[in-house]
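HOLO CASE FILE
Compound: 6-O-phosphono-beta-D-fructofuranose
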Amino acid sequence: MSRLLYDESNIPDLKTLTAKCYDDPAVCKAEGDIKRIAVLTSGGDAPGMNAAIRGVVRCGLNAGFEVFGVTRGYHGLWKGEISPIGRRDVSEKLQRGGTFLMTARSKSFTTPEGVMRAAKMLEVYGIDALVVIGGDGSFKGARDLARLGFPVIGIPGTIDNDIASTEYTIGYDTSMNTAMEAIDKLRDTASSHERCSVIEVMGRRAGYIALNVGIATGAECILVPEVPFDFNKDVVRTILDGRNNGKHHYIVIVAEGVGSATEIAAKIEEATGVESRPTILGHLQRGGSPTLRDRTTASRMAIQAVNCLMEKRFNRIIVEQNAVITDIDIEQGLAMEKSIPEQEISDARRLF
Ligand code: F6P
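Model generated. Tokens follow.
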């Protein structure tokens, strides 16, 4: 089945292609049967990605597809690192963190020429559709392939939970549990030394991890990019009020999108006189065996991805909406915006 809309002599400017491109049967090249599918992981790894790959492979094989794995994300695709993947290749992977297909943040894929080359690689291997497990950036890459006429499906995998179209992204629960356990330990030492522990958590530009981990660890202050704060009123005053009420140690959670824990700890110590120590949890939050929530969600999202392929519903993102796993159009999903609901923020304030 030939599926590309363009060849190298006529590489389009990806921005000028619209969603209409693949909706139009005259230009969509996916009229034929889907026989061969490929799966890749892209962007930052997230616990549960292996469960999602396993789901796509097992469920895809059960549906009668030949399944291929692409190593190193779009970079590997661009280089043609594509090979068949079987039932046994995904044994013993479900419980492992990271992604055994490996991942990358590909610069080579961000140009029209790069996308065209990746699409050509898929054609060389006779792949009919691609499943991309990753975050928003990875979905933009998938969308670019879709605009060239290549059928894609996106499965949301990122610890940040910052994909607008879905309530949940694979890896989010595990990373929050990892952060929570680390912060419980930091509380022990902060309490022994009567210190303020300032902990920076990941999340890129979003504060979902920070907010929930802050609630779960009983933090005195939670700083997230979505909510502007007044340092004197919301941080210094909170710590001083706590001290005047008999508190001896303090936990301050800082989402990485707000700023540096090191700088904030120094400012707190200067303003309050309370000895303060910064901790940046960093990539620790991306590792570890996935929780039940991540394993089951990843497996169910993989099943839904294969459902889309079987039903020839292409260019979809698998999402969780109102706790139900379903799928939406990739262009529509990428156009959506998401922020922490006001209610969740005001609820968190009531716990201090
Ligand atoms: O998107 C996942 C994430 O871990 C973010 O929370 C963080 O900002 C970023 O990736 C770190 O990226 P890298 O692994 O490239 O340092």
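CASE NOTES: The pocket of 6-O-phosphono-beta-D-fructofuranose is lined by residues 44, 105, 135, 158-160, 202-204, 256, 286 (CB under 6 Å). Residues 172-193 form the longest helix (22 residues).
CLOSED: yes
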